[in-house]
UniProtKB/TrEMBL annotation, chain A:
Name used for this protein in its record: ABC transporter permease
Main localization (coarse): membrane
Keyword Cytoplasm: no
Keyword Signal in annotation: yes
Record's subcellular location: Cell membrane
Domain ABC transmembrane type-1: from-to ranges: 95-299
Species, as recorded: Actinomadura violacea
Any Pfam family: BPD_transp_1_N
Annotated membrane topology: Multi-pass membrane protein
Domain of life the protein comes from: Bacteria
From TrEMBL, chain B:
Subcellular location: Cell envelope
Membrane-spanning segments: none
Domain of life where this protein originates: Bacteria
Species lineage: Bacteria, Bacillati, Actinomycetota, Actinomycetes, Streptosporangiales
Keyword set includes Membrane: no
UniProt xrefs under Pfam families: SBP_bac_5
The name this protein goes by in its record: Solute-binding protein family 5 domain-containing protein
Gene3D superfamilies named among the record's database cross-references: Dipeptide-binding Protein, Domain 3 (3.10.105.10), Periplasmic binding protein-like II (3.40.190.10)
Keywords for this protein: Signal, Transport
Domain Solute-binding protein family residue range list: 77-418
Protein family (similarity comment): Belongs to the bacterial solute-binding protein 5 family.
InterPro entries to which the protein is assigned, alphabetical: Peptide/Ni-bd, SBP_5, SBP_5_dom
Signal peptide coordinates: 1-20
Protein species of origin: Actinomadura violacea
Length: 313, 509
């Protein structure tokens, strides 16, 4: 078990480094011009070249990468080309917005998909069909479009929720929830659909297996069969779909942030990319790449904990 | 089992009602209240005068900083923190008498020493605004109430720069502490509310000691950074924003909700016929060819179809409302293909020529711009090849002289700033360093003329020369439309968007 754990963590670290390296070289391919972004369109070419020289972005890309990686190993993530402030500054505030959105969405996906999966797998055929239709319908509507529809309906025509913006949880829990209600709905619905269908399929397979029939024949109560035995064994595919849903939601959150003008990581990523602000882009790559890798690692660990068979894989 | 389900439904309904209540109570107020919420397209970046954004980010710092000079609605310099200002006979010395009894929000008194500390620091600090102080050789504080700026040469843009970042006054204590980028300490109408601000939202409260409170009637100001046109539209409709720049096509639905609008001129769009000496494209060295290009363009099509409702046609680079603008030049190049062809033949190009220009489809958001230029220049035999250039390299490639002619959008400021940016041989937007003795003489006269009617006339002469010699082929002056909620009025301003903060005033509902 320990050996598997060490191997998984080692592989995750290598993957993280590879993603960061690839991202660094990709940002160099676009021919970014931070000097122009800083000095504006009226600056002369000579002034822009001098500014780029000062920032060190006129050096060959491998040399820039070596400096960046060296600084990173010393805990220095660099300074934003645009503001001259540390690239990591203000990231906490942005992260709290995106994590509120994705965290709440994940909670909704976990709760609703589990409920729908159980209802569909154990209920009557009518309920099963309704859940499938609902899942497929929500899966088919892009989050961006759903966000626009929700916004028009529940913020503009029926002014129940705010049309944009974010309120920190510490400032007002009620307004925090109100500000996130529509974005979370838009982000979570697609995830609910996918995870519910996966969970339903896995649960039906498990419920039809021999050992469940044996348990039933021995008079184990239906609730115990479902909660203690069937759900535990149906969990791996559901957990995998949840980890995929998390990654999709992170991507979807970036789009939905734009619609609701939530100043999270997505908005920062777009601004930094447009301005060619590589230090900020790289901080975001390290952070979001790290999050995706971490979630996958945690999913693996959860599967090992739930299903002993997975520990030998 | 019915009971728990009823409870759950009741709980959901109660939550929704509570959330709705939270939202509505937070948004109550509007113009009947004391809050003003404005939307602009970029987030707040820095309160350091050397790095202030003097374009779309103008309102962020106008809220906290007062300037030595202000510009009125016609963009003429009027007193601000300086009660009067006067040039010496040769326009190389500007004397400013400063307002007494003004204090910064940290309690420091505003006087000539404070103003000198600000301008001296500005001159030495690198940043996008440094050029504003390029003509200042020395700053003298003559007593507590008088500041004298000694210039290396006359600088017709100086007064408008003193109404911008150069004239934004910060407490010398904050400058010394080095915290000004994040913690502004000014004498302006509002105080920065750090606790109420977060990424994308900058909040301010009224500065109770501000000397000119009557012009800034709102107790709280909030500026939000919004880029998505639909979000802005929804924010206006939902009452979360009081005023914002919008797309002209959105105006109808907003007017139906009782909102008002105002338009502001921002600059010009058109062709820069850059290679005027014909170094890389000999045809452009002929004035007849450049005039023919101007005659071939259908300015009505550009301003009515390509930017519907959002532009006025023009054939000069200076903005209407400035001293250099000459209404009599409008219509100098009406579309006339026959005359254009004759000019091309006279120049020795009866069959036209080929030229490569950078493709701006990504910027324009539509291929219609390329199609229109293809058709119109094609009518006089000019064949355009469009070269795809990565967005981040496009300005640089234009300014490096890679293209003998190109379509671009430039902002208009004061005439002298426009001349510095586009006309002087070393200007960023004069990539082939074009020059002409006659033009140089006209520019010199304008630079040295006494501000007012004489200088305006001299700038008009420069403008006429540029139009006559067809250094450019401007087609339209884009207008930015702002919508405002009932109860809020945005005053007219001859040029520039966003409008100054002082233009936002209450009005009868």
């Amino acid at each position: 078990m320990t050996r598997i754990l060490v191997k998984r963590i080692g592989a995750a670290a290598v993957l993280w480094a590879a993603v960061a390296t690839a991202a660094f070289f990709l940002t160099g391919l676009g021919g970014s011009d931070p000097g122009r972004a800083i000095l504006g369109p009226s600056a002369t070419s000579a002034a822009v070249a001098a500014q780029n020289h000062e920032l060190g972005v006129d050096r060959p890309l491998p040399a820039q990468f070596t400096s960046w990686a060296g600084d990173l190993l010393h805990g220095d993530l660099g300074r934003s080309y645009l503001t001259g402030r540390p690239a990591i500054e203000g990231l906490g505030q942005r992260l709290s917005v995106t994590m509120s959105l994705v965290g709440l969405s994940l909670a909704v996906v976990v709760g609703l998909s589990l409920l729908l999966a159980v209802l569909a797998a154990t209920g009557r055929a009518g309920i099963d069909r309704a859940v499938q239709i609902l899942s497929l319908t929500t899966h088919a509507v892009p989050g961006y479009l759903l966000a626009l529809l929700l916004l028009t309906a529940f913020a503009v025509e029926l002014p129940i929720f705010p049309a944009f913006g974010y309120v920190p949880l510490t400032a007002s829990p009620g307004r925090w929830l109100a500000a996130l209600a529509l974005p979370v709905t838009a982000v979570a619905l697609g995830g609910v659909a996918g995870a519910a269908l996966q969970g339903r399929g896995a649960l039906i397979d498990v419920l039809e297996s021999d050992y469940i029939r044996t348990l039933r024949s021995r008079g184990v109560p239906a609730r115990s069969v479902l909660l203690r035995h069937a759900l535990r064994n149906a969990a791996p595919p559901w957990l995998t779909s949840l980890s995929l849903a998390f990654v999709a939601m992170l991507g979807g959150a970036f789009m939905v942030e734009k619609v609701f003008a939530l100043q999270g990581l997505g908005t920062l990523a777009v601004d930094a990319t447009v301005a060619g602000d590589r230090p900020v882009i790289m901080v975001l790559v390290l952070l979001t790449g790290g999050m995706v890798i971490l979630v996958n690692l945690l999913t693996d660990l959860a599967q090992m904990w739930l299903v002993p068979k997975a520990r030998t894989a | 089992m019915r009971h728990p389900r009823s409870l759950a439904v009741a709980a959901v309904l109660a939550c929704t009602a509570t959330l709705a209540g939270c939202h509505q109570s937070s948004e109550a107020g509007g113009k009947a209240g004391d809050d003003l919420t404005l939307a602009v397209p970029i987030p707040m970046s820095s309160f350091d005068p050397a790095r202030l954004n003097t374009g779309s980010g103008l309102l962020y710092w106008q809220a906290v900083y007062d300037t030595l000079v202000r510009l009125d609605a016609q963009r003429r310099p009027v007193p601000g923190l300086a009660t009067s200002f006067k040039y010496s006979d040769h326009q190389t010395e500007l004397t400013l008498d400063l307002r007494s009894g003004v204090t910064f929000s940290d309690g420091t008194a505003f006087d000539a020493q404070a103003a000198k500390a600000n301008i001296d620091r500005f001159r030495k600090t690198d940043g996008p605004n440094k050029a504003m102080a390029a003509s200042i050789e020395r700053v003298d504080a003559a007593g507590a109430g008088r500041l004298v700026l000694h210039l290396s040469e006359p600088d017709p843009a100086l007064l408008s720069n003193l109404a911008s970042a150069l004239g934004a006054m910060v407490s010398p204590r904050a400058l010394a502490a080095g915290t000004v980028a994040q913690k502004p300490v000014g004498t302006g109408p509002y105080l920065y509310d750090a606790a109420g601000s977060r990424a994308g939202t900058t909040s301010y409260t009224r500065n109770k000691t501000f000397w000119d409170a009557k012009d800034f009637p709102f107790g709280h100001l909030k500026i939000v950074a919004l880029t998505d046109p639909n979000t802005i539209l929804n924010g206006l409709k939902a009452g979360q924003i009081d005023a914002a720049p919008i797309r002209p096509a959105q105006l109808k639905s907003l007017k139906a909700r009782g909102m008002s609008s105002a338009t502001f001129s921002t600059g010009w769009k058109g062709l820069v016929l850059a290679d005027r000496a014909g170094k890389t494209l000999p045809a452009l060295g002929k004035v007849q060819v450049r005039q023919a290009i101007n005659l071939a363009l259908d300015r009505d099509l550009f301003s009515s179809t390509i930017v519907p409702g959002g532009a006025q046609k023009t054939d000069q680079i200076f903005a209407s409302g400035t001293g250099a603008y000459d209404a009599s030049l409008t219509g100098m190049y009406p579309r006339n293909v026959a005359k254009a062809k004759t000019l091309m033949a006279q120049a020795g190009y009866p069959h036209g020529f080929s030229v490569t220009m950078p493709d701006l489809t990504a910027f324009a958001g539509t291929p219609a711009l390329n199609t229109a230029i293809d058709q119109e220049l094609g009518a006089i035999g000019i064949k355009v090849s469009w070269k795809k250039v990565p967005a981040q390299q496009i300005l640089e490639s234009m300014q490096r002289g890679e293209y003998p002619m190109f379509f671009t959008a430039l902002s208009s400021k004061t005439p002298w700033e426009d001349i510095q940016a586009s006309v002087l041989p070393g200007a960023a937007w004069n990539p082939f360093h074009s020059s002409d003795p006659e033009l140089a003489g006209l520019v010199r006269t304008a630079q040295r003329a006494a501000p007012g009617a004489a200088q305006d006339a001299a700038f008009k002469a420069v403008n006429r020369w540029l139009v006559d010699n067809a250094w450019y082929a401007p087609v339209m002056a884009p207008l930015e439309t702002w919508a405002s909620a009932p109860g809020l009025r945005i005053g007219a301003q001859s040029q520039g968007s966003p409008p100054d903060l002082v233009r936002f005033q209450r009005s009868a509902r």
